[in-house]
Amino acid sequence: MKTESLEVSDLKEKLIEKGLLSITLISVMMILLIIIFLLSEAVPAFNQFGMIEIFLNHQWIPDLNLFGIMPMFISSLLVSFLALVLAVPLSIATAIYIEELSSMKVKELFKPVIQTLSGIPSVVYGFFGLTVLVPFIRDYVGGDGFSILAASIVLAIMILPTIITLSQDAIRNVPFEYKQASLGLGASHFQTISKIIIPAALPGILTGIILGFGRAIGETLAVLMVVGNVAQIPSSVLDPVRTLTSNIALEMAYAMDIHYNMLFVNGVTLFAIIVVLMALTNYIQHKWGC
């Protein structure tokens, strides 16, 4: 009986192993198919215009056969970087407070709040930006309200949960002995946080920042509603712009021929940015073992 039971157990383990392997292979195949599809649809545009013309041309006017993605590329980076500038200090400060300074009751209060922020649909953020931020910027800051600033504020709110959660995990995973040793040598709690805990947790915090940037640059609907959607290189954060994601969303419904292929070039560019961010994240995790 024991032998039969062991054989059945081994068979179940092998079936589970094979099943998990199959699911992994299917996931990899799906990703490869997406990459192949993106590249195959973008190749005609690369062949007709060339990469230099596509990435250095400052004009996107499909009716005149001008398909430069430089304005959208620059705008996407500016909107995402400004969102990080707004979100990172608040996220790290919140993570430090929750993990190092707050009471258990406060931690229990913040946990559902952060989870709620991460679960709110992007269209709700976009609607908030459209009805509150855009009029406020127009009336009290300048411009017509639809701008890099409005999109960056909306994105900053959206990426807060990602950066806060990963920063909390990084701070929580710092060995308690580090804190004990620092306090034992006479350092204050603030000195311990700033000189010991944050440097030790920095790789994990950087990972959260990079993933937050990836979330920001890939967001479509919320940005589409508040950014203004003008294909131009901005000279101010109050200028309306168009990002790579919003460009695809706006024009894919009616694009034809080479215009259709050029929108896939937008997609390939976004995919390349995400790949670089993931590679950077993996490098940080491998380098510092976080």
TrEMBL record:
User: Where is the major localization of this protein?
Assistant: membrane
Q: Where in the cell is it found?
A: Cell membrane
Q: Which GO terms describe its molecular function?
A: phosphate transmembrane transporter activity
Statement: the UniProt record of this protein carries the keyword Heme: no
Q: The ABC transmembrane type-1 domain covers which part of the protein?
A: 73-281
Q: How does it sit in the membrane?
A: Multi-pass membrane protein
Q: Name one GO cellular component term.
A: plasma membrane
Which keywords appear in this protein's UniProt record, sorted alphabetically? Cell membrane, Membrane, Phosphate transport, Transmembrane, Transmembrane helix, Transport
UniProt GO BP: phosphate ion transport
- Entry keyword annotation includes Transmembrane: yes
TM ranges are: 20-39, 72-97, 109-134, 146-166, 196-217, 262-284
Source organism, top-level taxon? Archaea
List the Gene3D superfamilies hit by this protein, alphabetically.
Answer: MetI-like (1.10.3720.10)
- Spell out the family assignment given in the record's similarity comment: Belongs to the binding-protein-dependent transport system permease family. CysTW subfamily.
Q: According to its UniProt entry, what is the function of this protein?
A: Part of the binding-protein-dependent transport system for phosphate; probably responsible for the translocation of the substrate across the membrane.
Listed NCBIfam families: phosphate_pstC
Q: Which PANTHER family match?
A: PHOSPHATE TRANSPORT SYSTEM PERMEASE PROTEIN PST (PTHR30425), PHOSPHATE TRANSPORT SYSTEM PERMEASE PROTEIN PSTC (PTHR30425:SF1)
* Name the UniProt record assigns to this protein: Phosphate transport system permease protein
